Amino acid sequence: MTDDSTSDRTTTPGTELGGMFPRAFQKEYVTITRGEGHYVWDADGNRYVDAIAGNQNVNIGHGREVVAEAARAQLEELEYASSMLFANEPAMEYTEKIAEFTPDGFEHTWLVSSGSEANESAVKMARQYHYERGNEGKYKVLSRRKSYHGNTGIAMALSGFPARKTKMEPLFDNWPKVPNGSPYRCGFCDDDGGRACGRRCADEVERIIQQEGPETVAAFITEPVTGAANAGASPHDGYFERIRELCDEYDILFIVDEVMTGFGRTGENFAIEHWDVTPDIITSAKGMSGGYSPIGGTMPHRRVANVFEDVADGFQHGHTYCFNPASAAIGSAVLDYMTERDLVANARDVGGYLRERCEEFYEYDMVGDVRGKGLMLGVEFVADRETKEPLDATGSEFQSLLFETGLDEGVLTYPSGGHVNGSEGDHTLITPPLTIDHGAADDIVDRLHATFERVEATLSN
Ligand code: PMP
Asked: What molecular function terms (GO) are annotated for this protein (predicted)?
């Protein structure tokens, strides 16, 4: 165990938390009471290194006073104005700032309150885009296996993540899923070291488009670096470039889900900038607000936004909390915090160092793959490294073992994956706040060493 390990913890059964259900991997909850920088404390005063930035969203760290001050000032001035009826200054200022931060050609943001809403909005935007151009028949949205796009109706249907949706099926529109296309467990191509594979996986996308009928396909959605469904994995080189070509050829909008990756997490402002590809719509959420308020955004490229300009009633969509002034003021303060300190460069620099140190985890037989970009890293666990056979423990047993051992060692982990209906693979994300330095990266690695050592020992008993 590490020096300040925290095995004395008060827990509350999930069934006693008013209205909350226990999750499969956590029957009892620790109560978190305070956060500062990359640390949080529980009700017993135990301190944890937040190696997952809350839920991959607390990108600027916990407890930043400037954000609290911005929120207070805005709440005193104007807490709410309906975006159906009015403009408001904080939302206009915030969307202008976002336009400075997004790649060239992205000038607009449709502000919502979560990642799921951002993706629902993107799908509706894509469908109306085709409708306005006389292509009402284009309604399907293709997505990849091993993907997560959210828990609302359309977003859940898009997600290639059985562990999060099987009990909800049949879903509203379970559109086709295309091969995942990531090198580890490609599951489609022969193992050729990933060289030709990107192209062949994307060729399979073309086959599916043709099978479905291109006149019915509105959009293709993908995470550039996958989060919960395949911790830190990206497709083979060449995949996104080929997808862009296919989208152009068949008049399909290319949506990148940057809910987790956007706003600097991978060491670029947006993860798709790691490739030479311009999408049609970017969605984002988590890092936008850094966890200080529920915020999401759907950002169409100019060529998509232009189609809505002459439409009398605009985008046929909206929620009560779209363009919320208080959230916008918070989002602005968070973005200022990031840009003033160049946290994207820090994610690149410290992320590179952390990634190198994470290679040490291959000393555990249960570690099959270490991957990721910037401060969005993932470790996949296996029963056998050679065959890549998944662990024997059920997903939830392994997830609770990892999470609780991590708590003992004073580090937060994000166990994900599972074994439901072929969504094989247990993994954990390592996604600390973008503010960490090399010393904090070392601390995370040391605590993860202590955690993995104990988990491996338990598994082999
Ligand atoms: N897309 C991705 C890539 C995500 O990681 C998530 C959240 N984990 C979502 C969508 C859904 O976002 P939210 O939970 O804010 O609805």
From this structure: pyridoxal phosphate binding; transaminase activity
Q: How far apart are CA 455 and CA 42, in angstroms?
A: 23
pLDDT tens-digit readout, 228-254: 999 999 998 889 999 999 999 999 999
Asked if residue 382 has its Cβ within 6 Å of ligand 1, the reply is no
Residue 260: CB within 6 Å of ligand 1? Answer: yes
CA of 193 to the centre of ligand 1 (A): 31
Q: Smallest Cα–Cα separation from 201: which of 169, 165, 240, 230?
A: 240
Q: Could you write out the DSSP letters of every residue in 367-395?
A: EEEEEEETTEEEEEE-SBTTTTBPPSS-H
> What ligand 1 atom has the least distance to the C-alpha of 294?
15
Identify whether the C-beta of residue 325 lies closer than 8 Å to the C-beta of residue 74. Answer: yes
Question: Are 426 and 398 in contact, with CB atoms under 8 Å apart?
Answer: yes
Ligand 1 centroid–CA 259 distance in Å is 6
User: For the ranges 178-182, 191-195, 206-210, 359-363, which has the lowest average pLDDT?
Assistant: 191-195
* Reported pTM: 0.95
The token pair that represents 220 in the structure block: 């293709």
CB 378 within 8 A of CB 427: yes
CATH code of the domain occupying 11-63+342-460: 3.90.1150.10
pLDDT the model gives residue 192: 54
In the reported structure, the alpha carbon of residue 148 is separated from the centroid of ligand 1 by a whole-number distance in angstroms of 7
Domain ranges of the chain: 11-63+342-460, 67-340
Query: Contact, 391 vs 425, CB < 8 A?
Result: no
Q: Which CATH number fits domain 67-340: 3.40.640.10, 1.10.10.10, 3.30.365.10, 3.90.1150.10?
A: 3.40.640.10
* Tens digit of each residue's pLDDT (9 = 90 or more) over 117-149: 999 999 999 999 999 999 999 999 999 999 999
